[in-house]
Amino acid sequence: MHFKIxxxxxxxxxxxxxxxxxxxxxxxxxxxxxxxxxxxxxSTPFQILGKVTQCNxxxxxxxxxxxxxxxxxxxxxxxxxxxxxxxxxxKEYRSKHGDDELxxx
Length: 105
Fold this sequence. Notes:
alpha+beta
């Protein structure tokens, strides 16, 4: 089943947001008991006791994180000491300029 969440609000007939959040950890036992832990707000995970329908810290696990996008992005090289202008791979840029420069974007 695929569904799209806008403004991190689940419809009443959908499952709770924790099921598709990258910050949640869901554990199920053989007996069917389920425990949901959330790391979105505090550094120590806390247990969620009910169905979450709104969350301002929701991070969709089905979309890449900012860190992932920065690591896969191509870099546009502008006029730089006679080198051809155009796109270069992120890996090539990081090897020449270091990791920190792109991480500050």
